[in-house]
């Protein structure tokens, strides 16, 4: 997303780097305080208060994936909410629990303790499919908001001029490593899902996400200024 928010990057991602393969995905969940009445994403986003700017959502910082992804969801849901950025998820979730904000989009690691204690309620996962970490939580598409998927994902890259034969060999080895049960379990402990994707799929994903996120970046006032 950097090309969308920063005008003077010292590199052009898809020109200066060659994708080797996707490594893992980190799903994001929409969560609210358990004291809130909302039982689904639609309950929240269709609430009249969520449409007139009376509700606030938290993020771990301006320009973060949580910020931009939530703006995309709100925009496509026809809602209007106040953004309250925090310096990380820890204070954001603390205020969410106490009711200072109404929702947050975050990965499982900062949410897990409060979910286990029953202080937070997960309403949806922003991935294309349900997460094995919380399989009973529906996707945003299932909740009535298709096209709002987002997540943090990791990929391996090589310099742009790396011969394709070398890239393909590295990609094949990456696929083997990620298929190893021990490797997959190690990612689970980090809250990630090991999920290989080929170089061309990574390139297409970058292009698709830049197009999908551009309106949300503009709506959040984060679009790169060229002058």
From TrEMBL:
Source superkingdom: Bacteria
PANTHER family in alphabetical order: BLR1237 PROTEIN, TRICARBOXYLATE-BINDING PROTEIN
Lineage: Bacteria, Pseudomonadati, Pseudomonadota, Betaproteobacteria, Burkholderiales
Family to which the UniProt record says this protein belongs: Belongs to the UPF0065 (bug) family.
The protein's name: ABC transporter substrate-binding protein
